[in-house]
Write a structure and sequence with these properties.
The complex is a heterodimer. By secondary structure, chain A is mainly α. In chain A, 76% of the residues lie in helices and 0% in strands. The radius of gyration of chain A is 20 Å and the shape is globular. Chain A starts with a helix and ends with a helix. Chain B is an alpha/beta fold. Helices cover 36% and strands 25% of the residues of chain B. Chain B is built from eight helices and nine strands. In chain B, the strands form two sheets. In chain B, strands 5-6-7-3-8-9 form a six-stranded mixed beta sheet, sandwiched between helices. In chain B, strand 6, helix 6 and strand 7 form a beta-alpha-beta unit. Classes of the chains: A mainly alpha, B alpha/beta.
């Protein structure tokens, strides 16, 4: 009985994987349609923002002295964090935004949420072009460890799917969630060591960053591979994996529990 | 010959929350909660409906506006879950509840054909094989690469119908979608539906046009305010229905 259910689920997933692919392709196609530089913006945009941030933080606070190769440090952290906020924000709107479709055709609802996070992942891989450019430009050393970056990507993807599921279902019942999440991500950004290093922090703040902020685990691992050229601490790696699986389980649980009620609220 | 049951609707009740206002933000929720107004005002769109559709039959759902016909179709298509009772269907379902529901107005017709096909769960390979057939039927060859937002509603409907019926579905669900096309296309659609019916496709059809129900369907279910009033052979049900509306078959 239970085995049959799982089989049906897997079959449905395979059947609708084509839809997921189509939705991701649509997102990417429409993102830069009618813009002159097209996909180049995926690289240019993070570069421009990085330039602004480097200018502000290295001159205004004179912080760059503590961190070697500040530009690479900053853009590597931002790449990870942008993926988290970008993909979860899109995922949050995935159910409400496809209301007209969900009311008329039967489609497994998670397909929309997953496709948004997947689009975000593809975008992140594009934006790594910017990271590479900065590394070449600043003469930052490349190591073999760089090639291990997919290890972080997998954890990140699972984490963002889980968070996306949770936000998407919550947003169906309470549209306030979008505004709350917006404020939340701003706070989240400041407690994530993107433009400062965690060593500069002390006491409670440092404790919060290192132990209570999931993003820290991914930023840290990503920087190990691409910036420092080393393996991350086992503790950070294991922590990142556990957090991603736990978030995924929680998100999926809430999503599954409430998905039959979506139709009444969208 | 054994009659196979394709759709089994077993004592189905569908419930809506008929709140006076929709509560979709926390502030309203908190206020209503404090004022103890968070009562669930239930509204039963369908009550205890039971009917079985055999393979190759065509069922027309008739009834006045707001009687629950579309809700019934949505429940059978799997869009809504019944509150009580059970719906069992076998085989593939092609829902034509609103044509082109999966269209993205910024994409071109070509891209939309593939997207819509995926929404209906068809594989990429299948869509590639039948691409020309779809374009041919919809008669939009000259506009394939223009964004669909520039299409007229009739053109969109044509495209939607072509994509949805390219497959030979086991169950075809049609909800008054053909009212937008021109006479020529309507005729084409009716032909295609008759053709599908001859191929043992089961049809569920909602329409206010009793004539087309009589033409396409073998059976009918008359729903009024969520209750099944009558079911059986299409002629008998339609006649009774028309009588109740104070009309004769000739109107």
């Amino acid at each position: 009985m239970d085995k049959g259910k799982t089989k049906i689920r897997i079959e449905t997933f395979i059947r609708y994987s084509e839809l997921m692919k189509q939705l991701v392709v649509r997102d990417l196609k429409l993102k830069y349609r009618r813009s002159l530089l097209g996909y180049l913006w995926s690289i240019l945009n993070p570069l421009l923002i990085m330039l602004v941030m480097v200018a502000v933080f290295s001159n205004l606070f004179d912080r760059s002295g503590d961190i070697k190769n500040y530009a690479v440090y900053l853009i590597s952290g931002r790449t990870v964090f942008e993926f988290i906020t970008g993909s979860t924000n899109d995922a949050m709107r995935s159910i409400v935004g496809n209301a007209s479709l969900l009311k008329k055709v039967y489609v497994p609802k998670y397909v929309f949420t997953l496709s948004k996070v997947t689009s975000g992942l593809v975008n992140m891989v594009f934006s790594m072009g910017a990271l590479l450019l900065v590394m070449v430009f600043t003469g930052s050393p490349f190591t073999w460890y760089f090639l291990l970056f997919p290890v972080v990507l997998i954890q990140l993807y699972i984490f963002c799917c889980g968070l996306g599921f949770f936000l998407a279902q919550a947003n169906v019942f309470f549209r306030d969630v979008q505004y709350i999440y917006k404020a939340f991500t701003t706070a989240w950004m400041y407690i994530t060591p993107i433009f400062y290093s965690v060593e500069q922090m002390h006491g409670t703040v440092r404790y919060i960053i290192e132990y209570l902020n999931p993003a820290y685990y991914y930023v840290k691992q990503f920087r190990c591979f691409v910036y420092e050229g080393c393996l991350p601490d086992l503790q950070v790696f294991a922590g990142g994996c556990i957090i991603s699986l736990l978030t995924f389980a929680i998100g999926l649980f809430f999503f599954k529990k409430s998905q039959d009620k979506f139709i009444l609220y969208i | 010959m054994e009659e196979r049951i394709m759709i089994d609707v077993d004592h189905v009740t569908i419930r809506f929350n008929k709140a006076t206002q929709k509560i979709d933000n926390l502030k309203d929720y908190a206020i209503k909660f404090i004022k103890r107004e968070l009562m669930f005002q239930e509204f039963l769109a369908l009550q205890d409906i039971t009917f079985q559709v055999g393979k190759g039959e065509g069922w027309g759902l008739i009834g006045t506006n707001g009687s629950g016909k579309s809700t019934m179709l949505k429940a059978i298509a799997g869009i809504m879950k019944p509150y009580k009772g059970k719906i069992t269907t076998s085989g593939t379902i092609a829902p034509l509840i609103e044509l082109g529901a999966g269209f993205d107005s910024n994409l071109t017709a070509r891209e939309n054909i593939y997207l819509n096909g995926a929404v209906l769960g068809y594989s990429r390979q299948f869509m590639e094989e039948h691409f020309d057939e779809i374009v041919e039927f919809a008669d939009i060859r000259n506009f394939l690469d223009s964004p669909i937002k520039n299409y007229s509603s009739g053109m969109k409907a044509r495209l939607g119908f072509s994509v949805a019926t390219v497959v030979n579905p086991d169950i075809l669900i049609v909800d008054e979608v053909l009212s937008v096309g021109d006479a020529k296309f309507k005729k084409k659609c009716n032909q295609r539906m008759t053709e599908l019916l001859e191929n043992d496709t089961t049809l569920l059809y909602v329409s206010h046009n009793i004539k087309s129900v009589l033409k396409l369907c073998t059976h009918a279910l008359w729903i009024d305010k969520g209750h099944a009033v009558m079911q059986g052979r299409v002629e008998e049900v339609c006649e009774k229905y028309m009588e109740s509306q104070g009309l004769t078959m000739e109107d």
